[in-house]
# Entry
Amino acid sequence: MASLTPLPGTLGHRRAAHLLRRASYRYSKAKVDQLAAMNAGAAAASLLVSNPLQLIQPVYDPNATTQGDPVTNEKWLLPNGLPLPSGADDQTLRRYVMSWWVNEALHDPGIVHKMAFFFHQHLIVAANAFGNAHFFDYLTLLRWGAIGNFKKLATKIVMDNCMVRYLNNQQNTVVNPNENFAREYFELFTIGKGPQIGPGDYTHYTEDDIVQAARVFTGFRTLNPQQNPDTRIYSDPETGIPRCNVQYGQHDTGLKAFSDKFQKTKIAGATSAADMLRELDDFVDMVFDQPQVARNFCRRLYRWFVSKNITAEIESDIIEPLANTFISGQYEIKPVLQQLLESQHFYDADDSDNSDEIIGGMIKSPLELFLQSVTFFNLPIPSPTANPRLHYQQFYSNAVINRILLPAGLPIFFSSDVAGYPGYYQEPDYSRQWFNSSTIIARYKLPQMLLSGVQSYGTNPNSSIYIKLNIVPWTQNSGFFSDPSDPYALVQDLLNYMLPEQIDNDRFNYFYLDVFLDNLPPGDWTYEWQNYLNTGDQTEVKIPLERLINAIMYSPEYQTF
# Structure
């Protein structure tokens, strides 16, 4: 029986690693060891915090082409928004914003950026929906709401400048209604469509409800950036984040009457620009009064953190109780996450076979695969302040986003569909979507890229990726190994932290005997390691170490979490 009962006792290594892989983009041995000594509730709570950012905004340096060039570090977004830095175009600055977010995700030791990307998947906009500053505001809003109140976030997203543009609410006026945003607000953002039960009649709303919702959303519009260059002057009083403008003259002021799906609720039209916000609140209250909103949200959380498989048992024993927690908590997200991440079910400890369903049961997205690999090896990355162009453009934008994530199937912040990235939503495969004939090479070349520091494949195989895993010094100096000269312990330590599940003896011997030792006696490694320590010559120890890292990261087990 699936159970949300808290897991008793301390987590231990295996479960702590599972929690960290699922809940954070930052994965390290030290953090696993820290969580392993905690109970499930304390471990989950330690991740459910909003940690300080590395930099509250990206910085731009038009002069830095090499490390020795002068650094200007222009900040154009906060506190009040400035004109574009000299020499910068909107597209370039947008790439800086995207790179800034990925860097913050890499450094976040908690769950916030994992949840922010969850909301990007479900409240999606494209990075080029509007200006670079507005996309920064959108990402800031998602981070603000990541572990906060979903109802508030679902209200504020209506007035997000990028969202208004992306889903055509800019064209939604009293004389020219546009239903696109209203349709997605119901289907993708909140209540979900459900099976169609008649013409224009779905399980949870009707086509006429979409019409009425579109009328509520009329007049929420961005300013014309050509006529008003500072389009960020309107800010939300609670978040301080810029939002769109309300134009009462473009708003439908009539009564909005909804179907019996919403208990035939009637919402009075606004009588002023300020009253448009009251009308919006009334509409969101009506939507969130439907229990299906909580159920839909909790199913998405479940598929994000636990498994794609929602059986009748999971629906009754996991989704429904989580939804009840969500509703009783006035749509606060953190209590639901706490309940899920401390549960026996999350750790696959609520049935007789705890090794067949959840731990290691999902395929890593390209973002998890890359960020968790980089943080596991603690690879140094170019500094965002010493050389912003190297950090933002060359490393993150050109190497990470264009040469690693994109070929692996994640065009980050440029989803081709309003439903998001197929690996997160496409039934029945979900995360298996990350593996196909066009993405498999990019995934399997990652270890070689990290070890060589170059792209290693494609039309420019020698292009630098600006980071490199120097495996011999890492083995010697990282503190990861108790005794690097012991080949059995070395391989065992790596496998215990890099793979999600304990492997059997035959599989272990493959990595240990066939790959690492190349079927030579264990004493050969001990001798060569000591020789390296005495002479500094890496030649004979680098080859087996690189061979082992390649094999582990290439393995099907490493591709899962």
Summary: The beta strands are 196-198, 201-202, 220-221, 245-246, 256-257, 266-267. The radius of gyration is 25 Å. The chain is about 45% helix and 0% strand.
